Amino acid sequence: MATEHEQETGGSSAGESDGTGPGTDVSNLPLPPYPPNLGPSQLHFVRQMWDTLDFIERAFAERDVVRTRVPSQGDVIGLSHPDHMKRVLLTDRDQFRKSEDFRIAFGEGLLTVEGEEWQQQRDVLQPLFTRQSVMGYADGMVEQVRRRTRRWTDGDRLVLQQAFTDMTLDVIFATVLGRELAVDGDERIRDAAEHLHDWFVPTSYALPEWLLTPARYRFKKAKETLEAEASRLLDEKRGEAITDPSEADDLLSLLVGLREAGVTDSAMLSDERLRDQMVTIIFAGHDTTTTTLTFAFWALANNPEVYERFHDEVDDLDGPPTMDDLDDLDVTERIITETLRLFPPVYMLPREADTDVAVDGYRIPEGNVVHVPIREIHRDERFFDDPETFRPARWEDDLRQELPDFAYAPFGGGPRICIGRQFALLEAKLTMATIGRNYKLYWLGENDGAEPPTSPQMTLRMESGQEFLVTER
Ligand code: HEM
Fold first, then answer.
1. Is the pLDDT of residue 3 over 60?
2. What is the rounded CA–CA span in Å between residue 136 and residue 140?
């Protein structure tokens, strides 16, 4: 497998245009589920929405190129081989653009912009997200987590997805915006962050973008609330020049400070861009980590031996985890790696073909939506033994080096690989260790060793209302 650096910047020529010429039009592919395909084809979209993960699993079980249909989008082409992902994200990335709906939703933030504009934004932000840079947030992250876990007592029943949503929002607000959210308040902000996902509710896929559905209205209001908050914080920080990054406690102060000091091109850091950037980071940077933590504790609760090894490891720390402990948390790290394999929060990457593209003998016409199903790639038995089983120990040896490029890519890849991955991994590790030292969480759902109850929305989430029991250790 390519190292993360190679996966980011290129280095191998494999996976470039497959040289199959124009090929068969992809619209000739039958729609899944493959035989028996009972009922009229109009039911196809309903089936997709009814049990999305099951539909995706069946669709890709026999093929790497899959056609589905979505009202208002037409043919959507799924490409589920690591070589496909490599083409889409790295070698042929110019042929696949980001889908328009993200830009409509998030304006000019890093997640959505393209071309020169994207490169300039990435150049400004990248140094602030290196492993070294995000280490500075370690103590603040632990403090935010402890503010909440201190209140947990033996016998509490927690809806863990919600508990982690609160916690990861606390962390992103404190570290990125420099604003400490109240533990028992700031509901307006918390609701707004939650509703940022409403732009992408599955029912809206079927409707034209100009139609203001109730979900889209909630999204619009949520975005306005967060933009107003970002503007208020911007005003507070105005005028404080910073040249040495270690002088800033949070990312927004640093960006404003660099602008005031004239270190960075101020056009890149205009108020409007900074506001879009902050809303983008709130959106991209908390729900994904929430999902990772929730599924990690679900997997631990269902794998007692791994749970025990995890507790042994965190019990060896001298106190609450600090950045000096990170290298001693190998078991915790492998649990996170394996959780991101089985339950990648971004389970499907969307793009649009920017030109006619040939893939495995099929011609995908310009404008078709293309999906790369990361979850299916991570569960492909061609690359992983016993792929459905949670087994962190599989990462103990050389698996990472042996895997083909892009067979494991929870953070995407190529130049647009997740900029927040070091931040997310640091946060996940510190949060797990902080909790594990004092508590054991038991899942209160059916424990039949099967899959967790999952609700695939914009990100993968645990179904709402799933409770865990808190026991003190
Ligand atoms: C476990 C947690 C996370 C996962 C699984 C994850 C996953 C991803 C993936 C798959 C992409 C690529 C999207 C694409 O190519 O279309 C991405 C991009 C991005 N992520 Fe994350 N992410 C996580 C955490 C974070 C955090 C904590 C932040 C910010 C603090 C963040 C900010 C971003 C941004 C800004 C982009 C766009 C980068 C660009 O286009 O240059 N993410 N993320």
1. no
2. 8
Q: What is the pLDDT of residue 40?
A: 61
**Arithmetic mean of pLDDT, 372-391:** 96
Q: Is the CB of 280 under 6 A from ligand 1?
A: yes
Measured in degrees and rounded to the nearest 5, phi and psi for residue 80 equal: -115, 20
Secondary structure percentages of the chain, helix, strand, coil, to 5: 55, 10, 35
- The CATH number for 84's domain is 3.30.43.20
Q: Is 350 helix (H, G, I), strand (E, B) or coil?
A: strand
Q: 358 is in which domain, residue-wise?
A: 1-97+347-409
Contact 292 CB / ligand 1 (< 6 Å): yes
Q: DSSP strand E in 32-156: where?
A: 65-70, 74-79, 96-97
In the chain, how many domains are there?
A: 1
Q: For residues 420 and 130, what is the distance between their CA atoms, to the nearest angstrom?
A: 9
- The model's pLDDT over 233-282, given as tens digits with 9 standing for 90+, comes to 988 888 878 877 777 778 888 888 888 887 776 677 888 888 888 888 98
Q: With respect to residue 331, please indicate whether it lies within any of the assigned structural domains.
A: no
Whether 193 contacts 222, CB under 8 Å: yes
Q: How confident is the model at residue 5 (pLDDT cuts 50, 70, 90)?
A: very low
The residue whose CA is least distant from atom 21 of ligand 1 is 418
Residue 87 within any structural domain of the chain: yes
How much is the average pLDDT of 419-435? 97
- Assigned domain for 387 exists: yes
Q: 280: which DSSP letter? A: H
Q: Confirm whether 321 is domain-assigned.
A: no
CA nearest ligand 1 atom 13, residue: 412
Cβ of 345 less than 6 Å from ligand 1:
yes
